[in-house]
């Protein structure tokens, strides 16, 4: 089979999946769709992570190389105007996971046309990438270890790169991330009698300004990091000293030690403001995904095999991806696949209600996977 022959397959799959976006692990329609396609291609899918699937193409050796696609969508109201737009109000495949599934299903069909491979291939269809992290569930299940997966590859469609261009990086590609909530409990009073109150809003403002010093003064300026407070809600009325304030933010870094240092400084700041203001400050930090760090040898081999104009070396991004959980135990490479088309207006970022792309780019993704089969020694 020629990869070009898969165009109608991947186009149809992508558009049908695009119409039925679902969230997190709750993917009954998506999961059944993927299962039926895998069965129709001759696989016997193995259930994992509630609504995910693993499909195995056995090779001459049980050692395996894995390829992963994520399945979940976002709580976004679609505004693409496409004739295959979401049929589920308030939900949309705004992060390209419909394309990831279509690409991997197309690859699954292509694999069945090949002579028996030297090693096995494992195809991973994973729920809950957008949260809470389906990759961790799959790794904790032990299924990839049982299948002797030695390496794993994955894609993310990326509109900031020109259509069809691969984005490659040795080492860090995406950041470790976490979220934090800060709740400040003061005492409300009339603005004309402020001495009877304890102002939670002023305490929140002091925290907001102090947090900026974490990046400016507490961290090595050569160590990239993000600490962002994105929301602040406080107060009841213009003439009332605020009795309560709530703040939310995010932390991102490529380095575990830097990330830990940020958490410590947040705790120090909250404790200090509490002592100074008399406002009770509660800090809740939730760690999400580790950093995505690509195996340098795997990426280097791919760079050597590709034409120079087929890829760009990309700088690390402050985005986050649960593909990192696979890389904690398995050598892995995460690849960006450009979808940017200014002439079509397809430059809207990931998570945008207008995100869209041309399905032909998925064939280039399959072609790269085919090249990886060759370079990994799977093709005889």
Descriptive tags:
single chain; 380 residues; alpha/beta; eight-stranded mixed β-sheet; four-stranded antiparallel β-sheet; 10 helices; 32% helix
In spatial order, strands of the major sheet run: 1-2-4-3-5-16-6-15
Mean pLDDT: 97
Instruction: Indicate the multimeric state.
Output: single chain
Would you identify the regions where 5 or more consecutive residues have pLDDT less than 50? none
Beta-strand residue fraction: 25-35%
Give the H and E element order.
HHEEEHEHHEEEEEHEEEHEEHEHEH
Write the layout of secondary structure elements.
Blueprint: H1 7-18, H2 28-40, E1 46-48, E2 52-57, E3 61-70, H3 97-111, E4 119-126, H4 134-141, H5 143-146, E5 149-162, E6 166-168, E7 171-174, E8 176-185, E9 189-190, H6 200-218, E10 225-234, E11 240-241, E12 244-253, H7 256-277, E13 280-287, E14 292-294, H8 296-305, E15 311-313, H9 324-327, E16 331-340, H10 360-375
Helix pairs in contact: 1-3, 3-10, 6-7
């Amino acid at each position: 089979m020629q990869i070009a022959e898969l165009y109608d397959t991947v186009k149809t799959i992508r558009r049908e999946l695009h119409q039925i976006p679902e969230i997190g692990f709750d993917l009954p329609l998506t999961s059944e769709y993927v299962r039926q396609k895998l069965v129709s291609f001759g696989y016997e899918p193995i259930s994992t992570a509630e609504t995910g699937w693993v499909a195995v193409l056995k090779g001459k050796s049980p050692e395996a190389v894995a390829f992963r696609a994520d399945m979940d969508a976002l709580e976004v109201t679609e505004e693409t105007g496409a004739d295959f737009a979401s049929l589920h109000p308030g939900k949309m495949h705004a992060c390209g996971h419909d394309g990831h599934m279509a690409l991997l299903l197309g690859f699954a069909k292509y694999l069945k046309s090949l002579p028996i491979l030297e090693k096995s291939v494992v195809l991973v269809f994973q729920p809950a990438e957008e949260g809470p992290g389906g990759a961790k569930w799959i790794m904790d299940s032990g299924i990839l270890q049982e299948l002797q997966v030695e390496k794993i590859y994955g894609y993310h469609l990326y509109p900031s790169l020109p259509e069809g261009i691969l984005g490659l990086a040795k080492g860090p590609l995406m950041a470790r991330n976490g979220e934090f909530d800060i709740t400040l409990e003061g005492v409300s009073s009339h603005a004309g009698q402020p001495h009877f109150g304890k102002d939670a809003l002023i305490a929140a403002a002091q925290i907001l300004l102090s947090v900026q010093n974490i990046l400016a003064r507490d961290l090595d300026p050569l160590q990239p990091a993000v600490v962002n407070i994105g929301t602040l809600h406080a107060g009841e009325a213009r003439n009332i000293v605020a009795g309560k304030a709530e703040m939310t933010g995010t932390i991102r870094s490529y380095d575990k030690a830097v990330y830990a240092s940020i958490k410590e400084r947040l705790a120090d700041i909250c404790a200090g403001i509490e002592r100074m203001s008399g406002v009770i400050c509660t800090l809740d930090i939730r760690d999400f995904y580790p950093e995505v760090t690509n195996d340098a040898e795997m990426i280097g081999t791919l760079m050597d095999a590709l034409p120079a104009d087929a890829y760009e070396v990309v700088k690390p991004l402050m985005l986050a991806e649960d593909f990192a959980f696979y890389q904690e135990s398995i050598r892995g490479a995460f690849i960006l696949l450009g979808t940017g088309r200014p002439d079509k207006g397809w430059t809207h970022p990931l998570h945008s209600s207008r995100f869209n792309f041309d399905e032909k780019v998925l064939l280039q993704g399959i072609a790269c996977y085919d090249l990886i089969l060759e370079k990994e020694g799977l093709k005889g």
